[in-house]
Amino acid sequence: MKVIEFLDSKGVHYETSQHRPAFTAQQMAAEEHVPGMAVAKPVVVKADNTFYLCVLPACCKIDFDALKKALGVEQVVLADEEEIAKIFDDCTLGAEPPFGHLYGLETLMDQTLEQDSFIVFQAGTHELAIRMDLDDYKKLAQPRILNFSYHTR
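Above: the chain's sequence. Below: its structure in token form.
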């Protein structure tokens, strides 16, 4: 998996854990016993024909109007499963890691993820999670930090 090899090559500290299959970020938060605000949920969007990897807390959704405004584009839509599978060819669909540059995408991180000192995310499968310090994640992912999500209840 690209993400494990990448983290190892950078010598950054991270922890992995196995869990029962989790098919949503909120399910993974429950399996990992962490709050949804600490789980980094990657969502691929297409903004005026350019793909971006949006990273936001598991318990949040994208505010498409805010994202359009922040990017200065006309249209933002979710990428379809076929497009995502083609981009993240080494991952199980729905278990993409939050490192867009590993797949040729710019990473956009929602600022609400900065509320915790760590993040947890899928490592390319529905059964493997990675936990790492948020500061290390930001150094490696070099995300553009924007405000584009809202909390769901």
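The radius of gyration is 14 Å.
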